[in-house]
Write a structure and sequence with these properties.
By secondary structure, the protein is mainly alpha-helical. The longest helix is centred in the middle third of the chain and has 9 residues.
Length: about 70
């Protein structure tokens, strides 16, 4: 059983607009997507091993060190 507020008939409250619907093409894409398509279009994050293999960025040389040379 769903609780209702006094005077609530379960319909759309007066004075409020219903939630806007999505365009048909968005719904069609949602319905046609499958796991393979989602995985193929998802951004790829490098694995921990790939991240560890990259060299660490070196700090930029200080500006005053260049002036001393």
């Amino acid at each position: 059983m769903t609780a209702q507020w006094p005077g609530d008939d379960g319909g759309t409250p007066q004075g409020r607009e219903p939630t806007p619907s999505l365009p048909d093409d968005v719904w069609q894409r949602f319905l046609m997507d499958d796991e393979h398509a989602i995985r193929a279009s998802a951004p790829k994050e490098p694995s921990a091993l790939q991240r560890a293999a990259r060299p660490w960025p070196r700090p930029a040389p200080a500006a005053d060190a260049a002036e001393r040379e």
